[in-house]
Amino acid sequence: MRRREWLKAGGVALAAPLIAPLTWPRDAFAKTDQIVVMTWGGQWGDAMRDNVDAAYTKATGIKVVQDRGASPVQRITKVKVSEPNPTADCFQVADGLVPLAIKQGVCEKIDRNSPRMPNLRNMIPTFWNDYWVPQIFSVIGIVYNTKLVKNPPTGWADLWRPEFKGRIVLPEISHSIGSYIVPIGAVAAGRPPSDEEAGFAMLKKMADLRPIWAKDTDTMMNSMRTGDAMIGILYKSQTYTVKGYGAPVEWVYPKEGGIAYTSGTCIAKGTKNLDAAEEYINVTMDPNVQTFAAKIYNYGGTNKDTISKLPPELQERVKFPQDQLDHLIKLDLGMMTDKRAEWVERWNRAVSG
What gap in Å lies between CA 303 and CA 296, rounded to an integer? Predict the structure, then answer.
């Protein structure tokens, strides 16, 4: 991924934000000098290193070692196969894979009353999960090139318009939101998002349009940035990133409803550094630290106080009108997790033949 190059091009200077002083004795931490955190690479990994990790080390004296060498699914697998001594203390995933992580039993249950995680008590209530702490959020919709697309899309079904053949960018199945094309296809066909048969029928039709299948979000953004893609699926937040590089793109909230996206951190089951891992989670929830995601990615933070730390322009980018929030498509992530292996096989057959 080329996130570092983009960061430099955008002229964004990252600096470790200040966080509130610790309110408990330093010796409350487990006796460790480092923790391992599995996360994404590229610009996101760099931003986590320069903001969250740096703030954490400044507050605790504990070094953070990043493991960027695996996809979100592989992170879950790595924790599972390394039981009872996980190779990482924390790992980051998006919401679509949280049910899989829980089912695999690789997440420590979150103690919302822990003295090492006071920021959790200020989480936006809708984001609470007993096994995962979301850090950022946005909404998934449609992005399109305003110069190449003369008839702007209004809904998910527009992705299947024949004039976009070969010029549609979509996440492949290994991506955090790769499986979302199935419920999106169902909705585009006028069916409920849970109608997997309708969704896979639409996936076959999409495969016939030969889309650009992207392994990561950088590729999705780059395809829109270069004009290789005319239209695609993207978060509202990262549409602003693409626009920031001069690309003529706009984001559309689909008339059928957008899809919420959140990303955050699990504590690896069985970590020997639980105290230190909890404090790391607390830093990811610090409102002063969370602002980096808005400044770089236009992501909202999950701490209720984060938005007040942002200038008005950024506040507008990360907020969503109430009618859009009320109209979000609700995905059955538990069902999608249970059928993940089957869906991966069906996706490969539909796409590869």
Answer: 17
Complete DSSP assignment for 66-96? EE-SS-HHHHHHHHHHTTTS-S-SEEEEEGG
> Residue 136, class by beta-carbon neighbours within 10 Å (0-12 exposed, 13-18 middle, 19+ buried)?
buried
Give the Cα separation of 165 and 152 in Å (integer): 16
- How many Cβ atoms are within 10 Å of 71's Cβ, its own excluded? 16
Token couple for 240? 């602003």
Chain mean position to CA 308 = 22
The first and second tokens of residue 164, run together, are 């976009």
Which residues are CB-contacts of 322 (< 8 A; sequence separation ≥ 6)? none
pLDDT digits (tens, 9 = 90+) for 309-338: 999 999 989 999 989 989 999 999 999 989
Query: What crossing angle do the helices spanning 236-243 and 287-297 adopt, rounded to 10°?
Result: 60
Check residue 51 and report its DSSP letter: I
Two tokens, residue 88? 């990482």
The percent helix, strand, coil of the chain (3-state, each to 5) is 45, 15, 35
For the record, the structure tokens of 101 come out as: 């992580």
Interacting residues of 208 by C-beta distance below 8 A, sequence separation 6+ = none
**How many Cβ atoms are within 10 Å of 19's Cβ, its own excluded?**
18
- Beta strands (DSSP E) in the chain are 34-38, 63-67, 90-94, 133-145, 168-171, 212-214, 231-235, 249-252, 259-267, 300-301
Query: Cα angle at 206 between 202 and 210, to 5 degrees?
Result: 165
Residue type, 48: M
Looking at residues 47-64, what average pLDDT do you find?
Answer: 98
The CA-based dihedral angle spanning residues 18, 22, 26, 29, taken in that order and rounded to the nearest 10 degrees: -90
Instruction: State the pLDDT at residue 69.
Output: 86
pLDDT tops 60 at residue 265: yes
Q: What are phi and psi of 165, to 5 degrees?
A: -55, 125
- How far lies 100's CA from each of 18, 218, 269, 307, in Å? 34, 24, 14, 30
Which amino acid is residue 122, in one-letter code? N
Structural tokens at position 106 = 């690789």
